Amino acid sequence: MPDLPRVVITGVGLTSPNGDSLSEYRANLLAGVSGVEPYSIRHVGETFAGVCHFDTGKHQKRKELRRGTRAGSISVYCAREALADANIELGERDLARIGVYVGTTEHGNVETENQIHEVSQYGFDLSFWSHHHNPRTVANNPAGEITLNTGITGPAYALGGACAGGNLGLIQGVQMLQLGEVDLALAGGVSESIHTFGIFASFRAQGALAEHADATRASRPFDQERNGIVVSEGGCLFALERLDDARARGARIYAEVVGHHVNSDANDFVLPLPERQNECMRAALGRAGLAPEDIDIVSTHATSTPQGDVQECEAVSAVFGDSTSTWINNTKSYIGHCMGAAGSLELAGNLPSLVDRVVHPTINVDQLDPRCALRGLVLNQPREVPRVDTILNLSFGMLGINSAVVVRRVDA
């Protein structure tokens, strides 16, 4: 089998609860700035959420915003910002050779809930039901809205990967470039989850919705007193290119995607299985040709649920417990759980470490749960380390989907 083309990240476009560009986001990660805030949503009432505050009018006209969705707006913003960051002009590209791959947790709930609420105000008279409902709720909407905004005519679709969606979008982009199907991919994940009351109500019914006196401290993975998830919105799309193409145009390269793997627990609707997470990590390392001690940062998925964090730590310890050169962190402590966007946002926040050798910490850990006391865990303060050449990014989701992506610094 011939060697596959090498694929690299040349652009990052994101919006998160604590930053709308990689530079702002990274600065807030190093400064310990949370993006979680008090939030109210109908039928649930007062809670917490990670809310994005990007300029929706920067890349979209008012008509687009009226007709489209929040997920679509996030997607357009991230796609346009990724292209700008990569210094790519669409007018100079074959638009049929660009692919768009957007990972999502779910899509359509927001619009359906809104429409049901709307017609309920009029005695359920369906003449008040929006004719835009169907294109708003189809699963490919976020990717499709990107193509409508940019004129991209290549393959564009969403991948339903639960909370592993961000990694799945990235992996799909890598594979399509390696297959020669496209020459440029916009890939990652987005989430509009905070706009559906159902997700809050469901987590509350499970006893898995975070509570705390201070919104900014509600998301606290690994802490002894953690008590649940903070639901958040956000998005991050990467511009991906084959390494030879990127070098030929003199592009700045953030990292090379050198390994990935996806598997399934086949065990439970909600509860993770450490054995399968272990297998997923090891398979991604194997594809990258790396040993555990070769990984410098492990970006954990940990969501701040009592049981989920412990089971992930069990899996991570089984793989990296003997490594003295691997540092471990978590990003949800700052921004909550961005669902389909989580994997791509968490990878993005760690990419600058390949240059500055600083590992952002997990914040809000007042008392470390002994069951989560991983070797190399960076807590509360950034840590400058001797080397950061590689990052392993973990994202897991409901119905037992596990994903792992390995990236590596590319020398000039």
Q: What percent of residues adopt helix (DSSP H or I)? A: 25-40%
CATH architecture of the largest domain: 3-Layer(aba) Sandwich
CATH topology name of the largest domain, in short, is Peroxisomal Thiolase, Chain A, domain 1
Q: How many beta strands in the DSSP annotation?
A: 14
For the record, give the distance between the C-alpha atoms at the N and C termini, rounded to a whole number. Answer: 28 Å
Q: What is the general shape?
A: globular
Order of helices and strands: EHEEHHEHHHEHEHEHEHEHEHHHEEEE
Q: What strand line-up does the widest sheet have?
A: 5-4-6-7-1-8-14-13-9-10
CATH superfamily of the largest domain: Thiolase/Chalcone synthase
Cα-based radius of gyration, to the nearest Å: 20 Å
**Main pleated sheet:** 10 strands, mixed
Low-confidence regions: none
Oligomer: single chain
- The helix tally amounts to 14
Give the total of domains: 2
| CATH class categorisation of the largest domain | Alpha Beta
Structural class label = alpha/beta
Mean pLDDT over the full residue set? 97
Strand content: 15-25%
